Request: fold
Amino acid sequence: MNRCLRLCIPGLIALWSSLAAAQTRTVTMTVEGVDFADAETPFVNKANCVDPSTTDIELNVPTFTGTTAYIYLTIGATDCKVATNRDESTDPCKLVFTDISLDSPVTFHLSDLTASGIDLNCTSSASTGTTYTLWILSGTPVNNQDFTGENGNVDFKVDVSAPTAPTDLPVSRSGESFNLSWNDGNSGEVVDSFRVYKQTGTVDQTSCTCTGMCLQAGMAATSATPVASPGSTSVTISASTLGLALGDKTQLLVSGVDLAGNEGVLSAPVCVQHVMSAGFCDVQKANGFDCPNGCSASEMRGHTTKWIWFPLASLIAAAVWVNLRRKNFR
Reply:
């Protein structure tokens, strides 16, 4: 009997583990249509938290064969298959849905999760914050029994902290384009991409200052459309993309966007002008003006006069030489 116990129990445990593993299914999550399949962890962002009752969440469960499921929400790595974790007296696994249809995708609202009793911290959480887990247990879990049927889970985070404004925006020119770079200025928040905006207000063509409905440093670009969305801290934008005719000035501003999709406030504006190859500062100084910090220019090729003087000087020299020769022969 003892020999049987020694031999059989480990085998039964191994068999139970293999059966449980065979019942594990893949679950992916989208929030407001954003597919996080390529991300390490899906995110709920600040915009999603504004009105949880209108924020759509979808769980994609294409490999489940069951028709209904119980869905639980928990914090961290708590295993909701374990019966004691679903115990109502302790319940680290909060029940969100019973007998929900396992259509793919399973669709519900963020408010369904906030109503579970677990605080999703939609006021101050960041990308480095708490990890939450949604568990899907296919069928009907039995109280006081560990669940061994079809199951799957997906982790997500709540991040409502936006990146700070980029700083240090030097500009240089390259042909008909402006080269703009910056410092993302973020030590804690991971910046995934940036958005570059052209000034929406009226830009004075002498001082390069803005009046009217202007984008300003420290504000959100809520209604503006970016002219570029680079994934690094630099970008090259052509004068034609900005709609600048020769001599036109405008301002450019930059914001950062984190992994959750939170967009930060705008940087200080930088002035750019579409001028000929002489350069904006040369033109300004020639007209008696100072060169404002951060101003640059695109290059207009084929409009310089330096090549006219060489052949003209050559002709003059030749004429002088011929005249001197004639005098010597007289």
